[in-house]
Amino acid sequence: MQDKNSKFLRFLQIVLDLIVLNGCFILAGVLRFDDLDVENPEYYNYYVQLWVFLNLIWLLVALIIKMYDARPTFEIRKSVGRAINGLIIQVSVLMLILFVLKWDYYSRLFFVYFYASFAPLILLSRLVFISQLRKFYQNPAYRKPVLIIGDRPEAQAFYDQISENQDLGMNVVGWYGDSQGENKAGDLEKAKSDLSSLKAQEIFCALKPNDERIQDWFQLADANLMRFRFLPSLGVKNLVHAEIELYGDVPVLITRKEPMAFRHNRFLKRLFDVVLTLLFCVFIFSWLFPVLALLVRLTSKGPVFFKQKRSGLNNVEFYVYKFRSMVLNDEADTRQAEENDERITKVGHFLRRHNLDELPQFINVLKGQMSVVGPRPHMLNHTSAYRHLIDTFMVRHLITPGITGLAQSRGLRGETPETEDMEARVKADVYYLENWSLLLDVKIIFVTIWNMLRGK
Fold this sequence. Notes:
Strand order of the largest sheet: 2-1-3-4
Largest sheet: 4 strands, parallel
Mean pLDDT: 84
Number of helices: 14
Shape: flat
Radius of gyration: 28 Å
Helix content: 40-55%
Strand content: 5-15%
Structural class: alpha/beta
Distance between the termini: 53 Å
Number of strands: 10
């Protein structure tokens, strides 16, 4: 029942998207052209072609990046993030097609009208759809009836999750094991005779891996048109984003989800970085750089830039660039900047307070060594020390470091006198690695700018 519902809901998402897309296409045409004479060959055939391209590109992109997901566990933020990715890819592909074919007879104002309406409406539809989807799964009439078999702790954990999270769309209609419990019957054999009356659609098995009864229940599930699921004992905690991949018939547990492992996500993030960096360099850095460089040079001896080796993607070393905020000293590569540090110049205090000393790192972004958003790159001696103190410290090097990051937007920046301070920063970095989206990047950038203006 729920599988059919999921297919229907995915189909409904596609239909709603196409309604929004085509409605915005018509709206853009009405706003752009005073007289829509469909018999006018000057633009009619061209815009019919454009209409076909927009629909096909959107559907193909949606298929490639798996935009439509009707699972109960799907988050609103992820849904919106994938829609933003789809928008960016559609625009990029469309502009590439128009450039290659030199179709300069399309109205630029038409595209402005189209995307000015399509982008917000498609994101709004995602918010509404996922919100209603959760309400749908909370309705007892649409919850999938499931049966739990076994006594292992994983059975109790699964039962608790189903009971506490109604929007998972499941309802435990029976739990049988060799021993009795608060919500569990003690006669496992009795479950076989109760199958027809329970009307469960899936069986979740928590018997021990070497228990011979597993195969019996597997065959029993097939005979009664039930889907069989096994609750494994993995011995690893906090597997929030774990996935299973099959190599032939050998299951492999993927313990951590990494959106950046997909090429289209890396392309989107790189495109976003380059466009944002070029805009910043043209409109801000072009006039701000000489002002800051002059201030640094006139107020203290030494070069304008300070460069230092840091740990980057895959722990590859690179030189990070900053406006020099300290007097020349021999501890620059070993001693972390501290509050009221005597090495910091007067201009350096101003630069560091407003994060202006980090601006030359846009050069690192253009070189591909850094991203606008990502975990902050640390000094080499910090990497050597903390990799042995914090279990997940090196995980943050699986993604390109950034000028700003989730940790910094949360105020987790500056010196780290205690290991707990670095642990909080690493926890935020790992969360970013596992939950990256362009929407999250945009949010971090706005929070960072706001903090800079406030001097935090």
